[in-house]
Write a structure and sequence with these properties.
homodimer, mainly alpha, Tetracycline Repressor, domain 2, 9 helices, DNA-binding
Chain lengths: 209, 209
DNA sequence: AAGATTTGAGAACGATCGTTCTCCTCGGGG
DNA sequence: CCCCGAGGAGAACGATCGTTCTCAAATCTT
C-alpha cells in the first residue's frame, strides 16, 4: 500500500523539520479525514489538504497520485477505524443482549461529538456515488461489514436472523436522522426500538392479527 | 414565489416554438430534479440544465437568479411531491395499522424504480449541508414533515408516542440502505420490523428484564 | 411600418481546482 | 569546495463552472 519503497535503512532522515514518509502519510490522512468529513469531498481542494497537513504538494501527489486515490484512502481508513472503535466499545460488555444494545450507546456517544455530521459513507455516497464507482463500492463494503458485525452480535444472542436486519435499519436510520436534525436523541430511540424487538422475539412471537 | 409578475393577461404569448414562463419553469424544474437527483448537485452545471430544459441561460437566470436558488426550488418541489405521492398511496387504505404498513410498501415501490438513488435530502445534506445552510434547513424541514406524518398515522392507530420515532428510524434506515446496497429489500425488512413493533405494543408491553 | 425592447444562442469573464512545472535551497560525495 | 540530486514552496497550466455580456433576430407598440 505504501508507495515509496519504505526505506533501505535511513536513507533520508535529515534533521529537525524534515519529516519521514510515514508521518507525512499520517498527517495527510488526518487532514483529509477532518476536512472531507467536515465539509464534503468536493468542497475541499488538494491545496487545503496540503496546508492542513503541512506536506508539500509534490509529496502529497507522490503519496496519492490523484484526489480520487486520496479519497479512497480516506474511506478505507475511516472504515477500519470506525469499526474498530465500535468493536472496542462493544467488547467491554459480555452479556449478548447487552452487547447489542451497546451498539446504540456507542452511536449516541458518536452523535454527541461536536463535529458529528452523519455517516461519512452515506455522505460520500450521496455526493459521489453516482459519479465515482469506487466511492459507491466503498460505501457498500462498509455497510456490509457493519451489517455482518450486527449479524454476529445477533446470532451470539440467539436472536432470529431477521432481527439483525432490523437492528441495521435502526442504526442506519439513527445515523442520518441524528445528522440532519442535529441531535443525538435518535440513538436512544433506536436503542428503545431494539430493546422492544429483542424482547418481542425472546418472549415467543405472539403475532396475532 | 414566481419572479416575473405572471401575466397582465397574455402579454407575451408568441407563436409556435416560443414557450411561456410557466412551462419554462416546469421544464427547468424537471431538468433540475432529474439531473441533481441522478448525479448530485455539484456534478451538474447550469449549462447542462439549460441543455436539458431547452431554456436559454438568460431565462434560466431570470427564473432562478443563482444556482443556489434553483437548488432550493428543486428541494422545495421535491419535498411536496414526495410527500404528496406517499399520502396518496397511504390514503388508499383505511385500517389504521394498514396505513402505517402501507408506508413501507410505498417505499418498496420507490426503491424498485430503476433510477432510485436514495433520499434526495439525505444526499443533498451530505453534499452541501455543511456549506449551504439552506440545504441543511431544507433537509431538516423535510424530515420533520415526514416524521410528523408518521406520528399522525401512529396516533390514528392508537400507538404509543415512541412508536412513531421507531417507525421513522426504520423508514430512514431503509432508504439509505436500499440506496447503498442497490436493492429494494430493506423496505420489506423495515415493514417486518414495523409489524413486530406494532404487535409488541398492541399485545400489552411485556417488558421483562 | 419603424423604432424600442426583449429574447435566444453562445461567447466571454473571473474564479476555482486538480495537477504539473519551475526555481531555489540544502545536504552529500568527489 | 563544488557539482548533484532531492525536496519544498508556490507559480503556472488547463479545464470546468457560475454568471454576465454581446449581438443579431424577432416581437410589441404606436
Amino acid at each position: 500500500m505504501v508507495l515509496c519503497a519504505r526505506g533501505q535503512e535511513g536513507k533520508r532522515e535529515k534533521v529537525g523539520e524534515m519529516i519521514d514518509s510515514e508521518t507525512a502519510e499520517l498527517r495527510v490522512l488526518d487532514a483529509a479525514e477532518s476536512l472531507f468529513y467536515a465539509r464534503g469531498i468536493q468542497a475541499v481542494g488538494m491545496d487545503e489538504i496540503r496546508t492542513a497537513s503541512g506536506v508539500s504538494l509534490k509529496r502529497l501527489y507522490r503519496l496519492h497520485p490523484s484526489k480520487a486515490d486520496l479519497v479512497e484512502a480516506y474511506l478505507r481508513r475511516r472504515d477500519v477505524r470506525w469499526r474498530r472503535s465500535l468493536a472496542a466499545y462493544v467488547d467491554a460488555r459480555t452479556d449478548p443482549q447487552e452487547r447489542i444494545l451497546a451498539v446504540f450507546d456507542w452511536l449516541h456517544d458518536w452523535f454527541a461529538e461536536p463535529d458529528f455530521r452523519g455517516c461519512a459513507f452515506v455522505n460520500s455516497f450521496g455526493e459521489l456515488g453516482a459519479t465515482e464507482s469506487a466511492v459507491a463500492e466503498a460505501a457498500r463494503a462498509h455497510k456490509e461489514e457493519f451489517f455482518r458485525y450486527l449479524a454476529d452480535l445477533a446470532t451470539a444472542a440467539d436472536a432470529p436472523t431477521p432481527l439483525a436486519d432490523h437492528l441495521a435499519l435502526l442504526a442506519e436510520g439513527a445515523m442520518t436522522t441524528a445528522a440532519i436534525i442535529g441531535s443525538p436523541e435518535p440513538a436512544h430511540q433506536a436503542r428503545d426500538a431494539a430493546r422492544l424487538l429483542l424482547d418481542a422475539t425472546a418472549n415467543g412471537d405472539a403475532r396475532s392479527a
